Amino acid sequence: MPARHLILLIVVTVASVAAWFAHQRDARGRRVNEILAMIDAAYIDSVDGRDLVDAAIDGAVSKLDEHSAYLRGEGQQELEAALDQQ
Questions:
Q1: What is the distance between the alpha carbons of residues 39 and 31, in angstroms, rounded to a whole number?
Q2: Which of 17, 37, 59, 82 makes a 20 to 30 Å CA pair with 31?
Q3: Can you give the pTM of this predicted structure?
């Protein structure tokens, strides 16, 4: 087999594996988007999508351990300022 065919085979294989991993990673995001769309369509009251995403992230991070937390806005700025002082 010529070297260029072998190189082409390797490149195609690597690209295929990379595409498969990207597809698997995006599956979680699609699932979250589907849930958010269902809430938006079926929930009686209007809900801010940003608040729902923040709550989902907070829930995921809180499952890690008791020391993990999702900070945003002022809480994040306060933590960064405290770390900069140290």
A1: 13
A2: 17
A3: 0.54
